[in-house]
Amino acid sequence: MDIRDIDRRSLQIAGATIAHVKADHLDRPTPCGDWTLRGLLRHLVSENEGFAAAMGNGSAPRTVWDGGRLGDDPYRAYETSAELVTSAFAPDDALDRDMEVREFGVFPGWIALSLHAVDFLVHGWDVAAAIGVPYEPDDELAATALKIASRWPDAPETRGPGAAFDTRVEVPADAPDFQRLLGFLGRSPRWTPPC
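Below the sequence we write its predicted structure tokens.
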């Protein structure tokens, strides 16, 4: 498995969804707790910029991790930030270099990029659910992301308010891999915006 390829594919499917976002969508709720769509898109741009800077320097200040700007074209802001992170992880030695990921700790680049890939694949679904467009990652991408995420801690101290993920949502054991991934990361595959 080439984690760079998995990450690029996650960025691409999220980006294809973000291309459908219109200005009047930005205040819509999302499956991500208190974030509106505008807040979620800012988070995605910030995360891309943070991962890129941390790969280049070993770490990045909080202002970078939280400083993403959408300007008047959220899709362009996202695409620019996606190019940054893809370029930052392109060098041959990038996956072996240590980098600090926010307050979560220091990881080898390949682990950091695994976190990034899964996060963006699932956040792409968050965007799609908020604006009501289809989102269908291919089976290989969904299976790989589920395999990566299933290795992450699933304990009360790592879930809920203030944590990286919400409390696990039970989905049927025979559900498709992507639905199982959503449930594992605290999302109901049946989420729709409140009326």
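The mean pLDDT is 94.
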